[in-house]
Design brief:
about 20% strand; 7 helices; 5-stranded parallel sheet; alpha/beta; 4-stranded antiparallel sheet; single chain
């Protein structure tokens, strides 16, 4: 059983989805706006979020949730099918489901996300690093020393681990970590990644953990 925060303003859809999720033995808190969402995110295991909401839209709310709690899985629901909308959603969310959808598909996607995040307290081996991905406790196994990250370095590395083996653009990284639109030419992300490499890499001048994908962005590969 998972504790689910479900935010949907359409009553018919909301009642139907809530009932289906409860039939899967999940504990569901259903809100029709995002006004009180932040009161619940410390108490739930996953957020299911509609894009079209009164007041703060789902994209803005989702980015705000991820900024406050980066390890919270978010599944977006939307009638929007344009590629641009899906890319915007997947820039911060973990999954994006377009309406109409089958209840079994929704339940399956919820289960996949819960299993993915349940694995985060396993130890991840990244070359000479042992990483507890739940608490982001990083040990250099060659020296036995713990590697301490600053707050922003923590969020950047957490974002990489959530998208392990994926090539991430500068835009995706900046918007996923800072929650703001990336401005071409801004060196902020590059500076933070340089400092992060100085802590994580054996040779920061020749990084092998945080790879540079020329002309695109970066990747952390297991």
């Amino acid at each position: 059983m998972a504790r689910i925060l479900y935010i949907e303003d359409e009553t018919d859809i909301g009642e139907w989805v809530k009932q289906r999720l409860m039939e899967q033995d999940h504990d569901v808190t259903w809100l029709t706006t995002g006004e009180k969402a932040e009161q619940y995110i410390r108490e739930v295991d996953i957020v299911i979020l509609d894009v079209m909401l009164p007041g703060l839209d789902g994209f803005s709310l989702g980015k705000r949730i991820k900024k406050e709690k980066p390890d919270m899985p978010i599944l977006m629901l939307s009638a929007r099918t344009a590629v641009e909308d899906k890319l915007e959603g997947l820039g911060f969310a973990d999954d994006y489901v377009t309406k109409p959808f089958h209840p079994d598909e929704l339940a399956a996607r919820v289960d996949v996300l819960l299993r993915r995040y349940d694995k985060q307290d396993e130890l991840l081996q990244l070359q000479h690093l042992a990483v507890n991905t739940q608490d982001l406790y990083i040990i250099n196994q060659e020296t036995g020393e713990e590697i301490q990250l600053t707050g922003k370095q923590y969020h950047i590395f957490r974002y990489f681990l959530r998208h392990l083996n994926q090539i991430l653009t500068k835009e995706q990284l900046y918007e996923g970590v800072w929650g703001e639109q990336y401005i071409e030419g801004d060196k902020t992300l590059m500076v933070h990644i340089r400092h992060l490499r100085e802590k994580l890499e054996k040779d920061p001048a020749r990084p092998t953990i945080i790879e540079t994908i020329r002309g695109i962005g970066y990747r952390v590969r297991k």
